[in-house]
Every structure is written in structure tokens, then in C-alpha cells.
Amino acid sequence: MRFKNQHKGSQMPEVNLVPMMDVIMTILTFFIIVSMTLTNFQSVDATLPSSEKGANKEAPADPLVIGVTRTGQVEINQGTVTETQMAEQVVSYFQKNPKGTIVLKADKSLSYEQVVKTLGVLRDVGGDRVSLAIE
For residue 38, how many other CB atoms are within 10 A of its CB? Predict the structure, then answer.
């Protein structure tokens, strides 16, 4: 008895993916819903600050501007002072304005050593918040 070749006239079998994708989407939906219900949402019990309208804030103090001229003279408020007078004025400025700053304006032709010397005097009297001004 001879077997006939059955593959000659038959078509290739097709795999239908639509039912398989339906099952996968159903399982995915199930896991998403379960994960959302099992998640513990933690909250912090905090009392937030409220803002008041018209609250006065401290205005920042004007900086003390100290200028050093080309010849090495120290100027404060357009007046020439000595190093000891400068130190006294810086101390009194910081007593009035504890959060105040100092701006040091040195002439660009002034030697670097003179600027460092002035910064040292300011540091010695408590002037640790010094800004160097440039033009």
C-alpha cells in the first residue's frame, strides 16, 4: 500500500495570534489592578506655614563701600580715612548691621599687595563678608 503525499495539496497551517493577545492583555490588566490596590500610599502629616499679607521683611542693609585710591589712601563715604579709622568704622557698621557686607573698590593701577593688606585689616576686625568691585 502506498501512502499518498499529503503535503502536496495542503496549505501551511496559520497560527491565530488574536486569542493569545486577548489572554495576555487580560492577565496584564489583572496584574495592574492588583498592584494598584496593594500599594500603600504613605502621607506625611505636616503643618505648612501660611503667608501673611503685608508682613514686613527686613530690608537688606546698604553695603559699606570702601575705596582704595591709586596712591593707597582709603576712602569711606567720599572721605579719606586712615586704616585705624577704617577699622573703627567697619566695627561700628557691623554692630548696626550684623548681616551687612563690605564692598572694596580698589583702583586698577593699585598694587596687589595693597589690596591684600586692606583685605587683611578688614578680616582682622571681623569683615569676613567682603565683595571686590570691578568696573
Answer: 7
Pick from 120, 108, 113, 125: nearest CA to 67? 108
SS percent in the chain: helix, strand, coil, step 5? 35, 15, 50
Q: How many domains does the chain have?
A: 1
Which pLDDT tens digit goes with each residue over 54-78? 556 666 778 888 898 888 888 988 7
- Is 33 in contact with 71 (CB distance < 8 Å)? no
Q: If you count them, how many residues does the chain have?
A: 135
Classify residue 39: in a domain, yes or no.
Answer: no
Q: What pTM value is reported for the model? A: 0.54
Residue 17 lies in a domain: no
H/E run at residue 20: helix 18-38
Residue 9 falls inside a structural domain: no
Give me 126's grid cell. Answer: 571681623
> What's the alpha-carbon Rg for the chain, to the nearest Å?
40
Q: What are phi and psi of 106, to 5 degrees?
A: -105, 145
- Determine contact, residues 87/124, Cβ cutoff 8 Å: yes
Whether residue 67 contacts residue 110, with contact meaning beta carbons closer than 8 Å, is answered with: no
> What residue numbers bound the domain in which 85 lies?
64-133
